[in-house]
Protein backbone atom coordinates (compact mmCIF):
# COMPACT_ATOMS: atom_id res chain seq x y z
CA UNK A 1 0.00 0.00 0.00
CA UNK A 2 1.70 3.25 -1.14
CA UNK A 3 1.91 6.26 1.19
CA UNK A 4 -0.47 9.19 0.86
CA UNK A 5 0.58 12.51 -0.67
CA UNK A 6 0.40 16.09 0.49
CA UNK A 7 -2.89 17.82 -0.40
CA UNK A 8 -4.56 14.53 -1.29
CA UNK A 9 -7.62 13.69 0.87
CA UNK A 10 -7.39 10.64 3.14
CA UNK A 11 -10.58 8.87 4.19
CA UNK A 12 -10.65 7.40 7.70
CA UNK A 13 -13.59 5.23 8.74
CA UNK A 14 -14.61 3.72 12.05
CA UNK A 15 -17.42 2.00 13.89
CA UNK A 16 -18.61 2.66 17.44
CA UNK A 17 -21.47 1.67 19.73
CA UNK A 18 -22.13 1.96 23.45
CA UNK A 19 -24.82 -0.61 24.24
CA UNK A 20 -27.75 1.20 25.89
CA UNK A 21 -26.48 4.71 25.11
CA UNK A 22 -26.52 6.52 21.78
CA UNK A 23 -23.23 7.83 20.39
CA UNK A 24 -23.47 11.62 20.66
CA UNK A 25 -20.16 12.59 19.05
CA UNK A 26 -16.83 11.39 17.68
CA UNK A 27 -13.69 13.16 18.93
CA UNK A 28 -10.45 13.23 16.93
CA UNK A 29 -6.90 14.15 17.93
CA UNK A 30 -3.70 14.56 15.92
CA UNK A 31 -1.45 15.62 18.82
CA UNK A 32 -1.36 12.46 20.89
CA UNK A 33 -4.57 13.20 22.75
CA UNK A 34 -3.55 16.62 24.09
CA UNK A 35 -6.45 18.29 22.29
CA UNK A 36 -9.59 16.83 20.74
CA UNK A 37 -11.96 18.14 18.08
CA UNK A 38 -15.55 16.99 18.48
CA UNK A 39 -17.95 16.11 15.65
CA UNK A 40 -21.60 15.48 16.63
CA UNK A 41 -23.31 12.35 15.33
CA UNK A 42 -26.80 13.76 14.94
CA UNK A 43 -29.59 11.21 14.73
CA UNK A 44 -27.76 8.36 16.50
CA UNK A 45 -30.01 6.21 18.69
CA UNK A 46 -29.38 3.72 21.53
CA UNK A 47 -28.64 0.08 20.68
CA UNK A 48 -27.52 1.00 17.15
CA UNK A 49 -23.87 1.51 16.28
CA UNK A 50 -22.46 4.43 14.34
CA UNK A 51 -20.31 3.95 11.25
CA UNK A 52 -18.43 7.21 10.82
CA UNK A 53 -16.26 8.66 8.05
CA UNK A 54 -13.75 11.50 8.25
CA UNK A 55 -11.78 13.01 5.37
CA UNK A 56 -8.47 14.64 6.24
CA UNK A 57 -6.20 16.49 3.81
CA UNK A 58 -2.59 16.64 5.10
CA UNK A 59 -0.51 19.74 4.41
CA UNK A 60 2.88 18.37 5.45
CA UNK A 61 4.87 15.19 4.84
CA UNK A 62 5.48 12.78 7.70
CA UNK A 63 4.04 9.90 9.69
CA UNK A 64 0.67 10.70 11.24
CA UNK A 65 -1.23 9.09 14.10
CA UNK A 66 -4.86 10.12 14.49
CA UNK A 67 -6.74 9.01 17.62
CA UNK A 68 -10.52 8.72 17.69
CA UNK A 69 -12.91 8.19 20.59
CA UNK A 70 -16.62 8.66 21.16
CA UNK A 71 -18.88 10.38 23.65
CA UNK A 72 -22.27 8.86 24.49
CA UNK A 73 -25.54 10.60 25.19
CA UNK A 74 -24.75 10.69 28.92
CA UNK A 75 -21.55 12.63 28.23
CA UNK A 76 -19.29 9.66 29.04
CA UNK A 77 -16.13 8.95 27.08
CA UNK A 78 -15.86 5.52 25.52
CA UNK A 79 -13.45 2.91 26.94
CA UNK A 80 -12.42 2.27 23.31
CA UNK A 81 -9.84 4.41 21.48
CA UNK A 82 -9.13 3.88 17.78
CA UNK A 83 -5.80 5.01 16.30
CA UNK A 84 -5.01 5.41 12.59
CA UNK A 85 -1.37 5.38 11.45
CA UNK A 86 -0.55 6.67 7.98
CA UNK A 87 2.38 8.11 6.04
CA UNK A 88 2.31 11.25 3.90
CA UNK A 89 5.02 12.09 1.32
CA UNK A 90 5.76 15.05 -0.89
CA UNK A 91 3.68 15.24 -4.05
CA UNK A 92 6.68 14.60 -6.30
CA UNK A 93 8.01 11.51 -4.50
CA UNK A 94 7.83 8.42 -6.78
CA UNK A 95 5.38 5.70 -5.76
CA UNK A 96 6.91 3.14 -3.43
CA UNK A 97 7.43 2.29 0.20
CA UNK A 98 9.51 4.40 2.55
CA UNK A 99 9.02 1.98 5.42
CA UNK A 100 11.26 -1.00 6.16
CA UNK A 101 10.33 -3.76 3.74
CA UNK A 102 10.55 -7.50 3.97
CA UNK A 103 8.88 -10.57 2.57
CA UNK A 104 7.84 -13.76 4.23
CA UNK A 105 10.00 -16.50 2.79
CA UNK A 106 8.32 -18.98 0.39
CA UNK A 107 8.50 -21.57 3.18
CA UNK A 108 6.59 -19.29 5.54
CA UNK A 109 4.11 -18.34 2.86
CA UNK A 110 3.29 -21.91 1.94
CA UNK A 111 3.73 -23.92 5.11
CA UNK A 112 3.82 -21.83 8.26
CA UNK A 113 1.03 -21.62 10.81
CA UNK A 114 2.77 -19.00 13.02
CA UNK A 115 4.84 -15.89 12.41
CA UNK A 116 7.02 -13.52 14.39
CA UNK A 117 8.43 -13.29 17.87
CA UNK A 118 4.92 -12.54 19.17
CA UNK A 119 3.40 -15.76 17.74
CA UNK A 120 0.86 -14.54 15.18
CA UNK A 121 -1.42 -17.38 14.10
CA UNK A 122 -4.83 -17.82 12.48
CA UNK A 123 -7.68 -17.95 14.98
CA UNK A 124 -9.22 -21.00 13.36
CA UNK A 125 -5.89 -22.72 12.69
CA UNK A 126 -4.42 -23.46 9.30
CA UNK A 127 -1.93 -21.53 7.20
CA UNK A 128 -1.24 -17.85 7.70
CA UNK A 129 -1.76 -16.96 4.06
CA UNK A 130 -5.27 -18.45 4.03
CA UNK A 131 -6.46 -16.55 7.11
CA UNK A 132 -8.34 -13.31 7.74
CA UNK A 133 -8.51 -13.32 11.56
CA UNK A 134 -5.37 -13.68 13.68
CA UNK A 135 -4.25 -13.75 17.32
CA UNK A 136 -0.91 -13.06 19.00
CA UNK A 137 0.92 -11.74 22.03
CA UNK A 138 1.53 -8.00 22.28
CA UNK A 139 3.54 -6.25 19.57
CA UNK A 140 5.78 -4.21 21.89
CA UNK A 141 9.04 -5.86 20.83
CA UNK A 142 8.10 -6.50 17.19
CA UNK A 143 10.83 -5.66 14.69
CA UNK A 144 10.00 -3.18 11.88
CA UNK A 145 10.17 -5.93 9.28
CA UNK A 146 7.73 -8.04 11.32
CA UNK A 147 5.24 -5.15 11.49
CA UNK A 148 5.67 -4.60 7.76
CA UNK A 149 4.90 -8.27 7.11
CA UNK A 150 1.71 -8.08 9.19
CA UNK A 151 0.36 -5.37 6.93
CA UNK A 152 1.80 -6.16 3.51
CA UNK A 153 2.10 -9.94 3.60
CA UNK A 154 -0.77 -10.99 5.85
CA UNK A 155 -3.01 -8.06 4.89
CA UNK A 156 -3.93 -7.09 8.46
CA UNK A 157 -5.84 -3.79 8.55
CA UNK A 158 -7.20 -3.66 12.12
CA UNK A 159 -5.46 -4.54 15.39
CA UNK A 160 -7.46 -5.04 18.61
CA UNK A 161 -5.37 -4.42 21.74
CA UNK A 162 -7.02 -5.92 24.87
CA UNK A 163 -4.59 -4.73 27.57
CA UNK A 164 -5.13 -2.58 30.64
CA UNK A 165 -3.64 0.86 31.18
CA UNK A 166 -0.65 -0.40 33.17
CA UNK A 167 0.24 -3.02 30.59
CA UNK A 168 0.07 -0.54 27.72
CA UNK A 169 2.17 1.96 29.70
CA UNK A 170 4.94 -0.56 30.43
CA UNK A 171 4.87 -2.12 26.94
CA UNK A 172 3.70 0.59 24.49
CA UNK A 173 1.90 -0.53 21.37
CA UNK A 174 3.58 0.26 18.02
CA UNK A 175 1.28 1.57 15.31
CA UNK A 176 2.07 -0.08 11.96
CA UNK A 177 1.58 2.26 9.02
CA UNK A 178 -1.68 1.65 7.11
CA UNK A 179 -3.43 -0.04 10.04
CA UNK A 180 -6.07 0.93 12.54
CA UNK A 181 -5.46 0.00 16.18
CA UNK A 182 -8.46 -0.35 18.48
CA UNK A 183 -7.53 -0.20 22.18
CA UNK A 184 -10.16 -1.86 24.40
CA UNK A 185 -9.16 -1.55 28.02
CA UNK A 186 -10.71 -4.26 30.24
CA UNK A 187 -13.30 -2.47 32.34
CA UNK A 188 -12.92 -4.57 35.50
CA UNK A 189 -9.17 -5.15 35.37
CA UNK A 190 -7.26 -2.02 36.24
CA UNK A 191 -4.73 -3.46 38.66
CA UNK A 192 -1.02 -2.98 38.10
CA UNK A 193 0.60 -6.34 37.32
CA UNK A 194 4.11 -7.42 38.23
CA UNK A 195 4.81 -11.11 37.77
CA UNK A 196 8.34 -10.82 39.16
CA UNK A 197 6.91 -9.55 42.45
CA UNK A 198 3.77 -11.68 42.69
CA UNK A 199 4.60 -15.06 41.21
CA UNK A 200 7.59 -15.85 43.40
CA UNK A 201 8.43 -18.16 46.27
CA UNK A 202 6.82 -17.14 49.54
CA UNK A 203 4.23 -14.93 47.83
CA UNK A 204 2.51 -17.00 45.14
CA UNK A 205 0.78 -19.24 47.69
CA UNK A 206 -1.66 -16.45 48.61
CA UNK A 207 -3.44 -17.06 45.29
CA UNK A 208 -4.85 -20.34 46.59
CA UNK A 209 -4.71 -23.82 45.10
CA UNK A 210 -3.42 -24.40 41.57
CA UNK A 211 -5.95 -23.09 38.98
CA UNK A 212 -8.11 -21.41 41.66
CA UNK A 213 -7.16 -17.81 40.84
CA UNK A 214 -7.21 -18.32 37.08
CA UNK A 215 -10.67 -19.87 37.17
CA UNK A 216 -11.89 -16.77 39.01
CA UNK A 217 -10.23 -14.58 36.40
CA UNK A 218 -11.95 -16.40 33.54
CA UNK A 219 -15.32 -16.11 35.25
CA UNK A 220 -14.69 -12.38 35.49
CA UNK A 221 -13.82 -12.23 31.79
CA UNK A 222 -17.33 -13.48 30.99
CA UNK A 223 -18.77 -10.43 32.76
CA UNK A 224 -16.79 -8.07 30.53
CA UNK A 225 -19.31 -8.62 27.74
CA UNK A 226 -19.44 -4.94 26.70
CA UNK A 227 -15.72 -5.18 25.89
CA UNK A 228 -16.03 -8.52 24.08
CA UNK A 229 -19.16 -7.40 22.26
CA UNK A 230 -17.57 -4.14 21.11
CA UNK A 231 -14.59 -6.00 19.66
CA UNK A 232 -16.62 -8.69 17.91
CA UNK A 233 -19.18 -6.27 16.47
CA UNK A 234 -16.37 -4.07 15.18
CA UNK A 235 -14.57 -7.00 13.54
CA UNK A 236 -17.80 -8.24 11.96
CA UNK A 237 -18.90 -4.83 10.71
CA UNK A 238 -15.53 -3.95 9.18
CA UNK A 239 -15.04 -7.31 7.50
CA UNK A 240 -11.30 -6.78 7.00
CA UNK A 241 -8.34 -8.92 8.13
CA UNK A 242 -7.81 -8.29 11.85
CA UNK A 243 -5.41 -9.25 14.65
CA UNK A 244 -6.29 -9.36 18.35
CA UNK A 245 -3.89 -9.59 21.25
CA UNK A 246 -3.45 -9.04 24.98
CA UNK A 247 -0.03 -9.37 26.66
CA UNK A 248 0.79 -13.05 26.19
CA UNK A 249 -2.04 -13.92 23.79
CA UNK A 250 -3.37 -16.60 26.14
CA UNK A 251 -6.17 -15.52 28.49
CA UNK A 252 -8.15 -12.46 27.34
CA UNK A 253 -7.21 -13.22 23.74
CA UNK A 254 -8.11 -16.86 24.36
CA UNK A 255 -11.66 -16.16 25.52
CA UNK A 256 -12.17 -13.58 22.75
CA UNK A 257 -11.13 -16.08 20.10
CA UNK A 258 -13.16 -18.87 21.69
CA UNK A 259 -16.22 -16.64 21.62
CA UNK A 260 -15.67 -15.75 17.97
CA UNK A 261 -15.43 -19.42 17.09
CA UNK A 262 -18.57 -20.33 19.02
CA UNK A 263 -20.46 -17.40 17.48
CA UNK A 264 -19.37 -18.57 14.02
CA UNK A 265 -20.69 -22.09 14.63
CA UNK A 266 -17.58 -24.07 15.57
CA UNK A 267 -18.12 -27.01 17.93
CA UNK A 268 -16.74 -27.00 21.47
CA UNK A 269 -14.05 -29.62 20.77
CA UNK A 270 -12.58 -27.43 18.01
CA UNK A 271 -12.80 -24.33 20.22
CA UNK A 272 -10.97 -26.06 23.08
CA UNK A 273 -8.31 -27.44 20.75
CA UNK A 274 -7.64 -23.97 19.37
CA UNK A 275 -7.42 -22.52 22.87
CA UNK A 276 -5.01 -25.19 24.19
CA UNK A 277 -2.75 -24.87 21.13
CA UNK A 278 -1.26 -21.87 22.95
CA UNK A 279 0.64 -24.27 25.24
CA UNK A 280 2.44 -25.81 22.26
CA UNK A 281 3.05 -22.59 20.33
CA UNK A 282 4.27 -20.72 23.43
CA UNK A 283 6.11 -23.70 24.96
CA UNK A 284 9.55 -22.07 24.92
CA UNK A 285 8.23 -18.83 26.42
CA UNK A 286 6.38 -20.74 29.15
CA UNK A 287 9.48 -22.76 30.02
CA UNK A 288 11.68 -19.65 30.12
CA UNK A 289 9.26 -17.75 32.36
CA UNK A 290 8.88 -20.75 34.67
CA UNK A 291 12.65 -21.02 35.01
CA UNK A 292 12.98 -17.29 35.73
CA UNK A 293 10.27 -17.26 38.43
CA UNK A 294 10.54 -20.65 40.13
CA UNK A 295 13.69 -20.19 42.20
CA UNK A 296 13.20 -21.48 45.73
CA UNK A 297 9.61 -22.64 45.18
CA UNK A 298 8.06 -25.64 46.85
CA UNK A 299 6.34 -28.25 44.70
CA UNK A 300 2.96 -26.71 45.53
CA UNK A 301 4.16 -23.21 44.66
CA UNK A 302 5.54 -24.50 41.37
CA UNK A 303 2.18 -26.09 40.61
CA UNK A 304 0.48 -22.75 41.25
CA UNK A 305 3.01 -20.99 39.01
CA UNK A 306 2.41 -23.38 36.11
CA UNK A 307 -1.33 -22.89 36.51
CA UNK A 308 -0.75 -19.17 35.79
CA UNK A 309 1.51 -19.75 32.81
CA UNK A 310 -0.46 -22.44 30.96
CA UNK A 311 -3.83 -22.54 29.25
CA UNK A 312 -5.99 -25.12 31.03
CA UNK A 313 -9.34 -26.68 29.98
CA UNK A 314 -10.85 -25.73 33.36
CA UNK A 315 -10.29 -22.04 32.61
CA UNK A 316 -12.19 -21.91 29.34
CA UNK A 317 -14.89 -24.14 30.82
CA UNK A 318 -15.26 -21.63 33.68
CA UNK A 319 -15.68 -18.78 31.18
CA UNK A 320 -18.41 -20.61 29.28
CA UNK A 321 -20.10 -21.71 32.51
CA UNK A 322 -20.23 -18.14 33.84
CA UNK A 323 -21.59 -16.79 30.57
CA UNK A 324 -24.22 -19.54 30.43
CA UNK A 325 -25.22 -19.00 34.06
CA UNK A 326 -25.73 -15.29 33.42
CA UNK A 327 -27.91 -15.73 30.31
CA UNK A 328 -29.30 -19.27 30.44
CA UNK A 329 -27.50 -20.48 27.33
CA UNK A 330 -24.29 -19.45 25.62
CA UNK A 331 -26.25 -18.56 22.52
CA UNK A 332 -28.28 -16.10 24.61
CA UNK A 333 -24.99 -14.67 25.93
CA UNK A 334 -23.94 -14.09 22.31
CA UNK A 335 -27.21 -12.50 21.20
CA UNK A 336 -28.29 -10.65 24.36
CA UNK A 337 -25.01 -10.07 26.20
CA UNK A 338 -22.68 -9.41 23.28
CA UNK A 339 -25.51 -8.17 21.04
CA UNK A 340 -24.30 -10.00 17.97
CA UNK A 341 -26.94 -10.11 15.25
CA UNK A 342 -27.28 -12.94 12.72
CA UNK A 343 -25.49 -10.66 10.24
CA UNK A 344 -22.58 -10.21 12.67
CA UNK A 345 -22.30 -13.96 13.12
CA UNK A 346 -22.45 -14.58 9.38
CA UNK A 347 -19.69 -12.04 8.79
CA UNK A 348 -17.49 -13.63 11.46
CA UNK A 349 -18.04 -17.05 9.93
CA UNK A 350 -17.13 -15.69 6.51
CA UNK A 351 -13.90 -14.18 7.86
CA UNK A 352 -13.08 -17.58 9.34
CA UNK A 353 -13.62 -19.27 5.98
CA UNK A 354 -16.90 -21.01 6.79
List keywords for this structure.
354 residues; two-stranded antiparallel sheet; alpha/beta; ten-stranded mixed beta sheet
User: Cα-atom Rg, whole angstroms?
Assistant: 21 Å
Q: What is the H/E string?
A: EEEEEEEHEEHEHEHHHEHHHHHHH
* Major sheet details: 10 strands, mixed
Mean pLDDT: 88
Shape: globular
Percent of residues in β-strands: 15-25%
Helix vs. strand class: alpha/beta
Count of alpha and pi helical runs = 13
What oligomeric assembly is this protein in? single chain
Distance between the termini: 28 Å
**What proportion of the residues is helical, as a percent range?**
25-40%
Please provide the count of β strands. 12
- The poorly predicted ranges are 97-102
What does this structure look like?
The chain is α/β, with parallel strands linked by helices. It is built from 13 helices and twelve strands. Strands 1, 3, 4, 6, 7, 8, 9, 10, 11 and 12 form a ten-stranded mixed beta sheet that branches. A two-stranded antiparallel sheet has the order 2-5. The radius of gyration is 21 Å and the shape is globular. Residues 97-102 have low confidence and may be disordered.
Any chance you could write out the topology, listing elements then pairs?
Layout: E1 4-5, E2 10-16, E3 23-29, E4 37-40, E5 50-56, E6 62-72, E7 80-89, H1 106-111, E8 121-122, E9 133-136, H2 144-152, E10 158-161, H3 165-170, E11 179-184, H4 195-198, H5 212-222, H6 225-238, E12 242-245, H7 252-263, H8 268-281, H9 283-293, H10 299-309, H11 313-327, H12 330-337, H13 342-351
Parallel strand pairs: 1-7, 9-12, 10-11, 10-12
Antiparallel strand pairs: 2-5, 3-4, 3-6, 6-7, 7-11, 8-9
Helix pairs in contact: 5-11, 6-13, 7-8, 9-10, 11-12
Amino acid sequence: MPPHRINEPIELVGYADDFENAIAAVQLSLDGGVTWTEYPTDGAVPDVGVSWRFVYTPQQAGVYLMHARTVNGAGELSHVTTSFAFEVVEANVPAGQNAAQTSLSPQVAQESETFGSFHVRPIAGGLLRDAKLFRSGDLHAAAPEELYALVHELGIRSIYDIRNQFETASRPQPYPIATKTVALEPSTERRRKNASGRLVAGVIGKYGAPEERMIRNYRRFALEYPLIGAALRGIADEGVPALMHCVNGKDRTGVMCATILRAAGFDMDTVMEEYLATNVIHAQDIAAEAEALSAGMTNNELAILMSFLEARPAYLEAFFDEATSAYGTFDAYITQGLRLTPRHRENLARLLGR
